[in-house]
Specification:
EC number: 6.3.5.4
Largest sheet: 6 strands, antiparallel
Structural class: alpha+beta
Pathway: Amino-acid biosynthesis; L-asparagine biosynthesis; L-asparagine from L-aspartate (L-Gln route): step 1/1
Distance between the termini: 26 Å
Protein name: asparagine synthase (glutamine-hydrolyzing)
Low-confidence stretches: none
Enzyme class: ligase
Shape: globular
Strand order of the largest sheet: 2-3-1-11-10-12
Number of helices: 24
InterPro entries: ASN_synthetase/amidase, Ntn_hydrolases_N, Rossmann-like_a/b/a_fold
């Protein structure tokens, strides 16, 4: 549970602590306040060992997240080392030799305040895995939690309705906008500076994912990718004797299993409604890699029950239901491990998940992926649920963001529209939640993985070409274990086209004959949730939130909105989350 909020104007002692803790309905973190002529700052406890705030006579240095240091060892991650990591970053910065894109790896946000000159410096990570938000109106404020910033800046009621609609339709808010009119998200991989004599931040970008194909050989890129993520894992796990990981029926968690040290005790966790095909494959994978398999069962209405708590945790503009681990962080004691490893981000960064393509989608997953060049995210939005002028303004915002991406990624702008910053990707709230609950590490967010994703042509990502070459040695223990989608991940796409076709046929027969029944995947059955009496009750309870979003809607009746075929089931979940947020705000 680690966030900061900084204000150039002094704020009464105790107020920031109260505001930070208000975003947590349960198990609120300890919060430390700092005050001076430079302004006020509050920082909640960083779960990652060694990254508590560091203060001396001249500076306060705050690190959010648990970046891996590449200029020294990371042994402090294995014990309660206080400020060891923060001070190491501060000292290297003071020496003037810090290379932010090379010396730190993984998600982070760093704030340094000069108590004597009142100069403030903020650094964001390569993709803004940990987003930072700014308010620069009546005062100047920064925070890693958008709702916290809105509360302190007294902007709770200054809602951006266009962003609300954006979130309902797309599950994200188009960068740099937020749910609040006066608050913006700042750029990734950028250093922001504020001196006392100025009223706005000056920025300097230290890295940009420019479209430069840096590799002549896919094999070389694959080797660099595998070695890069292996180094990231090794730097973390050095001297750790007991760690945790997430396991699934897929290939990403198997890759992580192959990266983790075999001489370390590893507990593998999966969260399911019940033991199904996903769980059975995951258990076999865990056994193959020598990990201790743990199934944690969730209730059928788990994703409805966590809506209030998770919405507060991830903040406005992030889909709450990606907080899969909420509640399990305590029941499975995830918060007691020095490191918990996941496989998030590989699909979007390394397998072309955000590339629009023919084939391989929906009904025929065995068909090879071919990029579509006729798709554009800037097409005029059409939806009978919302007013035409609202959709027109939203289209302009999305077009502006696409135009921005085209300036440095002309051939792959459609893909990177959803990647830069990563808040444009619907899956990232998984990290927003996990990093506030336990010490989570995502190897596919390591600097090497990010840079290679930006440096290779899209055709290498399609059909898992790059990923399969990079991870093949790591997948060998499960060479003959099928992925839940019917593939053998160890093998390349041209073999799996035939393998998956056979699996697809067999699955179709199994469902038609009744041999395969029930929910066989990792997600809950949303139809069960949305047809429940509890869903109806939530709809009624949160309906007062319609007052905010109402002007953008053609239909004002809540029940009819949820019955409408103009919104798909994910958009209806987003609508429910939106109604809840505005209901609570009232």
């Amino acid at each position: 549970m680690s966030d900061f909020i900084y204000s150039k104007e002094s704020i009464k002692k105790g107020k920031l602590i109260q505001e930070v803790q208000s975003i947590y309905q349960q198990d609120g973190p300890s919060v430390e306040e700092f005050h001076g002529e430079w302004g006020s700052l509050a920082v909640s406890q960083n779960l990652y060992n060694g990254f508590q705030p560091y203060e001396n006579s001249e500076h306060i240095c705050v690190v959010i997240g648990g970046p891996v240091l590449y200029f020294r060892d990371n042994k402090f991650l294995n014990n309660n080392s206080g400020v060891a990591g923060t001070k190491a970053i501060y000292d290297r910065w003071r020496e003037g030799v810090m290379q932010w894109d090379e010396d730190l790896s993984g998600p982070f946000a760093i704030l340094i305040i000069n108590k004597q000159s009142s100069e403030v410096t903020c650094k964001t990570d390569l993709m803004s895995f940990i987003p930072v938000f700014s308010y620069q109106k009546s005062s100047i404020m920064l925070s890693t939690h958008v709702d916290l910033l809105a509360n302190v800046a007294d902007q709770q009621a200054n809602i951006d309705v266009i962003s609300k609609v954006d979130f309902i339709l797309h599950g994200v808010v188009t960068f740099p906008f937020t749910m609040y009119n006066a608050i913006r998200q700042i750029k990734p991989a950028t250093e922001y500076s504020l001196i006392s004599s100025t009223s706005e931040f000056q920025s300097n970008t230290y890295w940009l994912p420019e479209e430069k194909n840096m590799y002549q050989s896919i094999d070389k890129a694959a080797d660099d990718l595998r070695n890069g993520i292996q180094k990231y894992v090794d730097l973390i796990t050095n001297e750790m004797s007991h760690i945790a990981q997430f396991i699934s029926g897929g290939e990403d968690s198997r890759t992580i299993s192959g990266l983790l040290p075999k001489d370390t005790t590893r507990d593998a966790f999966i969260f399911l409604d019940d033991m199904n095909r996903e769980g059975k494959v995951a258990k076999r994978a865990a056994n193959a890699y020598g990990a201790n398999f743990n199934l944690a069962k969730r209730g059928k209405l788990h994703y409805l029950e966590i809506l209030p708590l998770s919405t507060k945790l991830v903040g406005g503009g992030s889909q709450y239901f990606h907080a899969h681990t909420y509640g399990f962080h305590k029941s499975c004691k995830l918060d007691e491990y020095p490191a918990v490893f996941g496989g998030l981000f590989s699909d979007v960064s390394l397998k072309g998940a955000c590339v629009k393509k023919f084939g391989g989608s929906g009904r025929f997953p065995f068909v090879p992926h071919i990029k579509r060049n006729d798709h554009s995210v800037d097409m005029h939005l059409k939806n009978n649920t919302f007013m035409a002028d609202v959709l027109s303004e939203l289209t302009k915002r999305r077009q502006a963001h696409l135009d921005c991406i085209k300036r440095f990624r002309s051939e792959s702008a459609e893909e990177w529209f959803q990647l830069w910053p990563i808040s444009m990707n619907i899956n990232i709230p998984n990290l927003h939640s996990n990093r506030r609950l336990f010490r989570t590490y995502e190897p596919f967010m390591a600097k090497d993985a990010v840079k290679i994703s930006a440096a290779v042509p899209q055709k290498w990502k399609l059909n898992r070409r790059l990923f399969q070459k990079a991870t093949k040695p790591l997948l060998k223990p499960t060479k003959w274990l099928f992925h839940v989608d019917g593939r053998l991940p160890y093998y390349p796409w041209y073999i799996n086209s035939f393998v998956q076709f056979t699996s697809w046929i067999n699955e179709g027969i199994g469902k038609r004959t009744g041999l395969i029944r029930g929910n066989q995947g990792p997600w809950t059955e949303w139809s069960t949730v949305m047809n429940s009496a509890e869903w109806e009750q939530a709809m009624s309870e949160y309906s007062s939130g319609m007052d905010v979003i109402g002007p953008a809607l053609k239909e004002k009746d809540v029940s009819k909105l949820f019955e409408s075929k103009d919104l798909n089931y994910v958009q209806k979940i987003n609508l429910m989350q939106t109604l809840y947020s505005d209901h609570k705000r009232k």
